[in-house]
Amino acid sequence: NRFCTTFHNRTGFLCDDRATCILASQVCDRVSNCRNGEDEQDKLCGDLPHSLPGHLIFRCSNPSYWVYADQRCNGMNDCGDCSDEMGTLASCSPCGSEWWSCSPVFYQYCSCIPRWLCRDGVQHCLSWSDEYIC
């Protein structure tokens, strides 16, 4: 079993040393993150996403698309339709303290924007709440 949870409570892949837990998105990224390179082996990366263990992937609402499991509920629109952030399968908690809840104007975000974008003189929320309230 290669399932583990990273220090940021994200889905991970357990290396052969049974101590190193890397993010799911670090598997098959052409960079060896495990000491023995097991995260880049052909048996794992040969036929993406089918060759990956199921816990490493999240299927978007459009079955043709998938993202790594640690990209689910990360605040970014990784699926392209926000199903990794707002979909029933994603089951994400509301915006965290580092995020501002609004309807974003940019395709990059779904229902929250990073707070560091607040009061920067650029509209990121349809209601402009990022400039006047946040």
Automatic annotation (TrEMBL):
Keywords: Disulfide bond. The keyword Disulfide bond applies. It comes from Chloroceryle aenea (American pygmy kingfisher). Signal peptide: none annotated. SUPFAM superfamilies: LDL receptor-like module (SSF57424). PROSITE patterns: LDLRA_1, LDLRA_2. Residues 93-132 form the LDLRAD1-like C-terminal domain. This is LRAD1 protein.
